[in-house]
Specification:
The protein is α/β, with parallel strands linked by helices. The protein has a single domain (20-95), classed as 3-Layer(aba) Sandwich (Oxidized Rhodanese, domain 1), CATH 3.40.250. It has helices at 10-17, 30-34, 51-55, 72-83; strands spanning 5-8, 23-26, 42-43, 64-67, 89-92. Helix 4 (72-83) links the parallel strand 4 and strand 5 (89-92). InterPro entries: GlpE_sulfurtransferase, Rhodanese-like_dom, Rhodanese-like_dom_sf. It comes from Petrimonas mucosa.
């Protein structure tokens, strides 16, 4: 895996997303997102056929923090973002279930 992807503990992830230049992306489904997300997170469903087009809405020169339910889908999304050349990608280890 690319060294641009870092999996972080909830505490480290919280510190990273406190930086307003970091783009926060929830890669779960709209239904999961509606049940609650992290404040200011953008919804980009990684399982959607439009995911690759959604990525183009992000600023590719800024870091991105991604999360999902348990950390599996977000790790996949992080890999896709790394392939697109984002400078730094942060993945929430254990996903949103680990967040509280």
């Amino acid at each position: 895996m690319s060294q641009t992807v870092q999996s972080l503990s909830p505490a480290a992830f919280k510190a990273v997303i406190a930086d307003k230049s970091v783009q926060l992306v929830d890669v779960r489904t709209a239904q999961e997102y509606a049940q609650g997300t992290i404040e200011h997170a953008l919804l980009m469903d990684v399982s959607s056929v439009d995911f690759e087009q959604e990525i183009e809405k992000l600023d590719s020169s800024s870091p991105v923090a991604v999360f999902c339910h348990s950390g599996v889908r977000s790790l996949y999304a992080a890999t896709v973002l790394a392939e697109r050349g984002f400078p730094a990608i942060y993945n929430l280890t254990g996903g949103i279930i680990n967040w509280q």
